[in-house]
Amino acid sequence: MPEVLRVIAGLGRAGPATYGGGLRRAEVPASMAAIDIGVVAVRRSIAEDVVLSTKIMEYMIMGKPVIASRRPILEQYLDRDSLVYFEDGNVQELSEKILELWRNPARRAQVVAGADAFLHRHPWEELKRDYVGMFRDLCV
């Protein structure tokens, strides 16, 4: 992280975003509750293309609108009403999506409502049962 901060400062890009350091596990929920928008920016890879991010689910459960890099697994489950997409590595598009949500409370509410609908269609207890069952089947 120190190197990232040096690069940002060197580019003259320091601004409203700050890095507050690491958090203890017990501090994470309060920190997430204080944010306006969740951003999950990952580089596409064979693994990332098939893994549904728990961070996305955490933001959704906390009632936060989410912006995430476009990946096949996400598009399979989450439409544009439950998540805002940007192309991996496209910093300009990510910036535009952040500003779009920040400036538009109605769009934020639409994304949160879409995420809530997704969470109701896929309750954690059901997903957990399937996930544990998959491992149980593999170990037999």
How would you briefly describe this protein structure?
The protein has 140 residues and is mainly alpha-helical.
List low-confidence stretches. Answer: none
The order of strands across the largest sheet is 1-2-3
Classify the secondary structure makeup into a structural class: mainly alpha
Total beta-strand segments: 3
Largest sheet: 3 strands, parallel
Tell me the distance between the termini: 43 Å
Q: How much strand content do the residues show?
A: 5-15%
Count the helices. How many? 7
Question: Rg, please?
Answer: 17 Å
So what's the overall shape? globular
Order of H and E elements: HHEHEHEHHH
Helix fraction by DSSP (H/I, runs of at least 4): 40-55%
Compute the average pLDDT.
87
Description:
- The protein has a 3-stranded parallel beta sheet.
- The protein is globular, with a radius of gyration of 17 Å.
- The chain has about 140 residues and is mainly alpha-helical.
- About 55% of the residues lie in helices and about 5% in strands.
Keywords:
about 140 residues, about 55% helix, mainly alpha
List the helices and strands and how they pair.
Blueprint: H1 2-10, H2 28-33, E1 38-40, H3 54-61, E2 66-69, H4 72-77, E3 84-86, H5 91-103, H6 105-121, H7 124-139
